[in-house]
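Technical note accompanying the year-one report. For the benefit of new consortium partners, we illustrate the data format agreed upon in the data management plan: each record pairs a sequence with a structure-token string. No post-processing was applied to the example shown here.
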Amino acid sequence: MAADPLTPAVSDRICKHMNDDHAEAVLAYAHHYAGLGGARSARMLAVTPEAMRLEVDGTPVEVPFDHTLSDSEDAHRTLVSMLKTLRGNA
């Protein structure tokens, strides 16, 4: 099955999945990549080709990706890779 373009609808789907099923990972992104080690809550608001947008303790935060995402599969691989990196499993 081909990957979906990274449209707003696909971004919404990714965010819902991450917030519902991987909330601890979203908070870990805020801690590690946004440098907000004291953050208590984080929600993923959007995934664009350039960055993920989070709401961290009520404040909007943007975490840039290391490359421009091409599609939904690239978003998945990149988010997983970022999580492995911050957990020291890269």
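Partners are asked to follow this layout when depositing records. Strands lie at 42-47, 51-56, 59-64.
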